[in-house]
Amino acid sequence: MVEHTVKAFDEDITRLRGLIAEMGGLAELSISEAMDALVGGRQDLADAVILRDKRIDALEMEVDRLAVRTLALRAPMADDLREVIAALKIAGVIERIGDYAKNIAKRVGHIDGHKRFEPLTLLPAMNDLAADMVHDVLTAYGSRDAVAAEEIMRRDAKVDAFYDSIFRNLVSFMVENPATISSAAQLLFVARNIERIGDHATNIAEMVHYAATGKYLPDREEVIPPG
Known about the structure:
Blueprint: H1 2-40, H2 43-74, H3 78-105, H4 123-143, H5 146-176, H6 181-213
Helix pairs in contact: 1-2, 1-3, 1-4, 2-3, 3-6, 4-5, 4-6, 5-6
């Protein structure tokens, strides 16, 4: 009976990890395609990102159901409990990342003269930084690599600095070119969404660190009670 229970739990964890890997892969694709759609003015690509978000949402619900069932039926303890809770929380964060990519895709029809709109050239590099954080933190989750998770958290400062620079540039551009205010404001919205993707990659990294070590990082201990 014990052997059967252990095997069943291992199968649940494998399934949870598989679902999160699928969610993460779809979210990464959406981040990349949303920016490609924005820069190229490709509504077809933007529509694909928006449609894909429904699949990400469905996968999150599947993770929720499986995690709750695992908690109820297996009653995991210690490391195993952290594994299930981390999966549950990470799925929710990936779903939000998918939402941010969808939000970026929705801006495609609101930018005038994509190919001639100079501020658009500022965003892809920032998007790449955030996308790399998402990819690497999902890799860290798969390998339970707490050291890699900590390194990824430090990268968020670069994304924040990029956002501050883009914000200043776009505001200056709007002042100098009042006719572009509407389009530039849409890009401010896009930059903010990219910045939030970086924040959420950091949130996943914190969960990976806790799942792997059982310890919260010092700056999280005040807001998350020890478990």
